[in-house]
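Design a sequence for this backbone.
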C-alpha cells in the first residue's frame, strides 16, 4: 500500500509529537506528503456569548494551533518531507473524519488514558479508528507510559 497523502492531527502536546515523528518516517519511506491538522475545538464556545474573555481563549487556541503546526513544518524541513499545514475550526473528531476520505492514512497520537478518564472523555483516536474512511496508525507516546 502506498501512502502518498498522510494526515497528521496534532495538538502540539508531547503525546502527538511521537505520532508526528512516525508520520515523518512513513512519509520518507513512501515519498509521501504530510498534512498537519490542528482543529480549534468549537465546542468550547457553544452557547457562550462572544465577549472579551472568550475572544482571549479563541486567540490562545489559535496561537497554540499555529505553534503545533509550526513544529510539524520545521520537522518536515529537517527531514526533507513535504508538509502542508491546515488550521481548522470545528469539532475535532468530525473534522478529522470528514477529511479522512481525502487521505491514504491518518497517523495520530493517543494520550493513553485509562479508567474513568477514558470513560468520561472518550478517545478521539479510538473514534477515528472506528469511523475513518482510510487506515489509521495510532502511535502511543513514551510520555503516556509515565502517567
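Sequence:
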Amino acid at each position: 500500500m502506498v501512502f502518498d497523502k498522510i494526515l497528521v492531527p496534532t495538538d502540539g502536546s508531547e503525546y502527538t509529537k511521537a505520532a508526528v515523528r512516525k508520520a515523518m518516517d512513513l512519509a520518507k519511506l513512501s515519498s509521501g506528503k504530510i498534512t498537519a491538522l490542528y482543529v480549534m475545538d468549537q465546542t468550547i464556545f457553544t452557547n457562550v456569548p462572544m465577549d472579551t474573555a472568550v475572544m482571549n481563549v479563541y486567540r490562545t487556541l489559535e496561537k497554540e494551533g499555529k505553534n503545533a503546526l509550526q513544529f510539524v513544518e520545521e520537522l518536515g524541513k529537517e527531514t526533507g518531507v513535504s508538509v502542508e499545514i491546515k488550521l481548522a475550526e470545528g469539532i475535532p473528531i468530525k473534522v478529522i473524519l470528514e477529511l479522512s476520505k481525502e487521505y491514504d492514512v491518518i497517523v495520530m497520537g493517543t494520550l493513553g488514558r485509562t479508567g474513568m478518564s477514558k470513560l468520561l472523555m472518550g478517545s478521539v483516536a479510538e473514534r477515528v479508528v472506528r469511523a475513518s474512511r482510510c487506515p489509521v496508525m495510532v502511535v502511543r507516546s513514551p510520555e503516556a507510559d509515565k502517567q
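Residues 5-146 form a domain with the Rossmann fold fold (CATH 3.40.50.12370).
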